[in-house]
Amino acid sequence: MSRRERRAAARGSKKTSQESGPSTPAALHAAGLAHLQAARLLEAQRCCEQALAIDPNHTDSMHLMGLLSLQLGQHDHAIAWIAGAISSDPKAGYVSSLGLALLGAGRLEDALKAFDKAASLEPENALHWKNLGAVLAEMDRPDEALLSLQQALSLSAQCVDAANMAGLLLYRQSRFAEALGFFNASLEASPEQADALHMRALVLQNLGRLDDAAADGLRSQLLDPTNVDTHNNLGWVLHRLGRYDEALTCFERALSLRPDYLVALLNKADLLADCLRLDEAMACYDQAKAIAPDDPITIWNVALLDMLTGNFAAGWAGREIRWTTGLGMAAPNFPQPQWLGTGPLQGKTILIFADEGIGDAFQFARYVPLVAELGAKVILAVQEPACALLSRLSGVAACVPKSTAALPSFDVHCAMSSLPLAFKTSLDTIPAAIPYLPAPLDALRAQWESRLGAHDRLRVGLVWSGNPGHGNDRNRSVPLRLLAKLLDIDVQFVSLQKDPRAADKEVLAGLDIVDMTERLSDFDDTAALMSCLDIVVTVDTSVAHLAGGLGRPVWILLPYRPDYRWLLGRADSPWYPTARLFRQDDRRDYGWVIDQIRNALTIEATAFRVRRSAAADSNGRSQD
To answer: What is the pTM of this model?
Structure first.
């Protein structure tokens, strides 16, 4: 800004005398600064104008006018005022303020130069390094930004903005342990920061420290009860901790502040569904559809509830949205058309591929022979551990690992989880003839019989945990120690548990459970071992589906809200005639479920002994 412009800006406030108040430019600047700090912007402006009327080149007042303009969002004016101050006195503080104005105007490269200059003029000033880090972060140069922010913190541990910014950068890179260190430093310097507590809660959540995350979320909520994200994220954590009433309160608080907050609405619906308050959950989903009719997560979750309640027609159709949910089910990228039950297959080659987990592949393998009966040549692409077993499935011309680089040629394709839709499956038309999975190889079965030894007690296979990466693992898996109460029954227990978790390994070593799982190379081996057992007791994993598809007696432990395929309120399964379902009640206590299994196993063990004794007596009489 030129001298003439500065005089024009100050002309309206020029007085011939100063009858009261500060009368020098320095004093007027000091008064203006105090007004600015108290958010009295008009009074601050008047002080600056009076100071510049006395001395149009008073740089502190020019700089303060720039700060006022910056406060008002007038970035171009701010740049002009501060640049004028710098032209007379290039102080580091002025240069740093210019950087802020340039940053606000979106001139990132110029802002970077200004902050870099300020840091070179005052290298011991943490604020300049923090500002440099901020603009580098804005320019998507996170590694350089982190270096600048670390420099700021090395100069001043009290620079909480630098610590929070560094933590946020690391959080965005999923470097959660490192991010935690910065948020810890920030909150140690200034404990009452709602935003920093909120961010640390998110970091702790991603580190699996849910109790600590809840504690931080509750503190953040108290400090800033208007933050809808805090309410929502705290509700998510409390839900996973089983603190259902508190979680519901959090979601309702978030929605009271922002009724169209889709994420909170979906989280509330999921919580209500977990509590089997299904009508209320569906009402939430209806609200979500009104806000975002095409939201794939809403459509997917509604489909799961439809399936759970037996509304298969709507459920199978709704589940086709899975490709767009971002839940890890990548859409097939084939140029060939998809087959969903319409159009002839006679003389065509169809690729049927596993699109969800191995358990889903086992469950829906029952449809493969039906496809072959329509005249199609079937190529099956499944997970490698299931490949050998499913290659012997009736109607399969070729079975390849789904990871194979070059698939055989085909005319049409269909995902395994879409086969029920293609065949318009209802509760009454589930293809439930068993066994539909291939019989175990005789040689493998003989090997496992030999390894197990004499069959003089009931043999019971055990699986207590599934994939730890599964979204519902916290409800599906149980710690092995809970099964220990079964072990005083006169039964030979056999582990079918692959890759037990560290804590379970320690427990397993001290229990009377036969464990030869290191010899299970694939599901052909598992099927052969399973064929030597009398009962399989398992949580909801691929082993449950394998046992059911082989027609083996399988007892399945289910959480209060089970996966859709197990339906509600029944001890049997229309998918697996040999399955027996042991469900949690509303206490969500697996200890109680295991007590029911213990009672049932005791009866089965007694019946086995009676049958064995009767067989021995019969053999003895025949020998006589």
So the answer is: 0.89
